[in-house]
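Q: I'm writing up a methods section and want to include an example of the input and output format. Could you take the sequence below and give the corresponding predicted structure tokens, formatted cleanly so I can copy it straight into the document?
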Amino acid sequence: MSLAVGRVIGDVVDQFTPSVTMEVAYNSHYTVSSGHELMPNIITSKPQVHIGGVDMRSAYTIILTDPDAPSPSDPYLREHLHWIVTDIPGTTDATFGREIVSYEKPNPLIGIHRYVFLLFKQRARKSVRPPASRDQFNTRNFSQENDLGLPVAAVYFNAQRANAARRR
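A: Here is the clean output for your methods example:
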């Protein structure tokens, strides 16, 4: 499913052209693919995020956000921030970066939530400051405040409460 169909474009960020590869996986073998569902027991610990690019001198920031908090039908806390890692060198992974907002496992209580990974290319290292709060986080404002511009990559997954009724 595309970012536009999943309403990531519009709800979270403006239209952009992906220019860097980003692979996200939980527990080494659950790869995040836009629009696919991951079970809550899989997403409890931080994922592995590998960034492409052509130059280790480039620095990137990863954001994980939930635009459906506390529920998709009434997202009055939109967005809820789950993770930020900055200063990640290109061609490496998130473990080489600086975690400025610690990973908070997704915990959807009501409905099916989208969890969005966004990758931004930084203009300079050590230039991204942590936001004041996880609740009512705004990716567009954060990007503007930290001079990040539009994302260079994005992917999202869906998740719902572990004991939620699922379609057959």
